[in-house]
Write a structure and sequence with these properties.
The structure holds two protein chains of two kinds. Chain A has a domain of about 140 residues. Chain A contains eight helices and three strands. In chain A, α2 crosses α3, α2 packs across α8 and α5 runs antiparallel to α6. Chain A is mainly alpha-helical. Chain B has one domain: Cytochrome Bc1 Complex, Chain C (Up-down Bundle), CATH 1.20.810.10. Chain B is built from eleven helices and one strand. In chain B, α6 packs across α7, α8 packs across α9 and α8 runs antiparallel to α11. The longest helix of chain B is centred in the C-terminal third of the chain and has 32 residues. Chain B is globular and about 65 Å long. The C terminus of chain B is likely disordered. Classes of the chains: A mainly alpha, B mainly alpha. At the A-B interface, β3, α1, α2, α3 and α8 of A face α3, β1, α5, α6 and α7 of B. β3 of chain A pairs antiparallel with β1 of chain B.
């Protein structure tokens, strides 16, 4: 009697999915499937319908806003009368707040340019693509590096009196430090989530925290001569 | 009644005129639905199918779609505003007053344009952070992320150039502050500022330049990049499905 063949031949029974697909499964191995069948829907109408509903809701919201609040309109532009403070649109007030501390070439040119470059290069660094938890390997050395960077940043910001950027920096650093001492096998959802966060996450979160704080301070807490005013006392 | 309507729609769709315009035939099979998207010059930017899971609200929060919705609202209200606006000093400001007191629903129109503009800036930022935190910038989607950064900058320029157009104190001094920052650029800062404003201060030339940028150059540039941005979603394998361990993305180019 000849040796039994080293494989079995079979056919997928679902003819709608795989009309003719023959699988050869050799003995002593198991059939492993790398890709998973994803449930898909037709773009028309499923996706378009949802998008149209979402945009309609947004439009309704904006129409409500436009009916309730009027866009500001001040006096005719007068180059002779500078309002105090003269403020840029809200999304530039973070930059204007920085101008208060640093020379224009730093706050107005260098920092925005660096931010744009940093945003563009994010996907081209493998460290961001692999996105390993920053504390999962080589922890002691990384902790030392982290301490040096945070200390340098804190001293720099303190020297220039940029307390509004220092506060969110320290807050994010505190969370990062906390994450460093979390047991990676921790059961608690938040801690597990935190310890797996890669470096890119922390840098972006730091950027977001600083940007939001600066913009909020520039918008709400700055009065004549760019002095600090409390929103609720204005 | 409903049956009658359906048969009427069917008849229209089967007519020679309809088919000559839309190239498709009648019916509601999945093939028809696929062709509806694939055979349409605008819709073919999108893929014919989408992963069901990615359509859950919690995945993308629909921020990209909402940003585009804002853009559409801004184009429509913007065109209507152009019908009553003169980019000259001081007529521009008088037109604002006319919108308030003369033009029917003028205030509403300007309000809607302004709030939609603020909303778009906010949504563009929110969209960017959402994409980042989902890790959706990863290959093969890295170039679409770069196009997204370009669109963020275009949005900011659009909003900034529009800020001057009412020609009130708020507009004038906000642009003055912004253009002073430009002149801080080393070597050629003041030249760029001169080019931008058409003079050494914010004046009537600056208003005209900002008007042309705001109503022509930047919207057209935005549309160009939005088209690529949408098309790349399809080319890069649809919306990012997330990093579930058991999901391995298919390799190779997508249809």
């Amino acid at each position: 009697m000849p040796d039994p063949k080293d494989f079995l031949a079979s056919r997928d029974s679902d003819a709608r999915k795989t009309p003719v697909r023959v699988a050869f499964v050799t003995r002593r191995t198991s059939p492993a499937v790398r890709t998973r069948y994803e449930d898909t829907v037709m773009t028309y109408p499923e996706v378009f319908f949802r998008v149209i509903v979402a945009v309609q809701l947004l439009a309704a919201f904006l129409v409500g806003l436009a009916l309730l609040w009027d866009a500001p309109l001040e006096q005719l532009a007068d180059p002779m009368h500078t309002p105090n403070p003269a403020k840029a649109p809200w999304y530039f007030l973070g930059l204007q707040e920085l101008l208060h501390y640093f020379p224009p070439v730093v706050a107005g040119v260098l920092i925005p340019t660096l931010v744009v470059i940093a945003l563009i290069v994010i996907p081209y660094f493998n460290i961001n693509v692999q996105a390993e938890g920053v504390w999962l390997r080589d922890r002691a050395r990384r902790l030392r590096l982290f301490a040096v960077v945070v200390a340098a940043l804190a001293v720099f910001l303190a020297v220039f009196d940029v307390w509004v950027a220092l506060a969110p920096t320290l807050l994010v650093a505190a969370f990062m430090l906390y994450a460093a001492f979390v047991d990676p096998a921790s059961k608690a959802g938040f801690r597990r989530w935190l310890v797996r966060k890669p470096l890119a996450f922390w840098i972006m979160t730091w950027f977001l925290a600083v940007a939001v704080t600066l913009t909020a301070v520039g918008t709400l807490f700055r009065g004549p001569g760019w002095s600090w005013v409390w929103l609720w006392r204005g | 009644m409903a049956k009658k309507l359906t048969s009427y729609v069917d008849r229209v769709q089967q007519s020679r005129v309809w088919r000559s315009i839309f190239r498709g035939g009648p019916g509601f099979s999945n093939l028809r639905r696929a062709l509806f998207v694939q055979q349409n010059v605008f819709l073919h930017l999108f893929s014919v199918k989408a992963r069901k899971r990615v359509l859950d609200f919690g995945v993308t929060w629909y921020l990209g779609a909402l940003t585009f919705g804002c853009f559409l609202i801004l184009v429509i209200t913007g065109i209507l505003l152009m019908l009553v606006y003169h980019p000259s000093v001081p007529q521009a400001y008088n037109d604002m007053k006319d919108l308030q007191f003369v033009v029917s629903s003028g205030v509403f129109l300007r309000n809607l344009h302004r709030w939609a503009a603020h909303a778009m800036v906010f949504l563009v930022f929110a969209h960017m952070f959402r994409v980042f935190y989902r890790g959706a910038y990863r290959p093969p989607r890295e170039f679409n992320w770069v196009i997204g950064v370009v669109l963020l900058l275009i949005t900011l320029f659009l909003s900034y150039t529009g800020y001057l157009l009412p020609w009130d104190q708020l507009a004038f001094w906000a642009i003055t502050v912004g253009s002073n920052i430009v002149s801080a650029m080393p070597f050629f800062g003041s030249r760029i500022r001169f080019l931008m404003l058409g003079g050494h201060t914010v004046n009537a030339n600056a208003l005209l330049r900002f008007y042309v940028l705001h109503c022509m150059v930047l919207p057209l540039t935005a549309i160009f990049f939005i088209a690529i941005h949408f098309w790349r979603i399809r080319k890069d394998g649809g919306l990012y499905p997330g990093d579930l361990e058991d999901t391995v993305e298919e390799e190779g180019p997508h249809a």
